[in-house]
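Teaching soon. Got one?

===
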Amino acid sequence: MAEIKETEVRIDVYLWSVRLFKSRSQATEACKNGKISINGYSVKPSRNIHSGVTFEMRDNPITRTYVVKQILQKRVGAKFVPEYLEETTAPEVLKRLQEITENQFITRDRGTGRPTKKDRRDMEKFGW
């Protein structure tokens, strides 16, 4: 019996399958909250996608861009994800994210109070 290949799948199922979210319900919530978009428009979790589609995922403080290589409905191991999904986020955006994480504010000791004016300026400088 020949295996039937799916040509379309719900976006929440796909996001869960390629391990962008730990559960399908988290993927559904991300779609409902407008964190997933295609062509600049927020998508509902029931939106069908097919191979070749480019979608964006808002992952504060940046927006990541992905291209669907192949469709799948079952969750795959992390080492197989590159066969199904390609990240096309611009290198300068990833560099900005790296700078933010490297220059993160060192955790404040408990009981030190609110940040000073200088602390707040430093946080704003790094996009907090």
Summary: The helical segments are 11-17, 24-32, 91-102, 117-125.
